[in-house]
Amino acid sequence: MGRGPFFSDSWGFNPAIILTAITLTTTITTVTTTILTTLTTITTLTTTTTTVLTAVTTLTSIILVTT
Question: Where are the transmembrane segments (predicted)?
């Protein structure tokens, strides 16, 4: 009588497939958010490192010129 694993005889569509879709969507959203947060952190660290290296280079140049 059944019409496959995604259908039930009661109201036509199996609620389990809806819950699975919601769970997958939530998981994908969480993973995407984590990846974007990680990329933002890497970008911030790279920018900070570049700023520090520029400052060190500038200070080194000043020290070399004045000595």
Answer: 12-36, 42-65
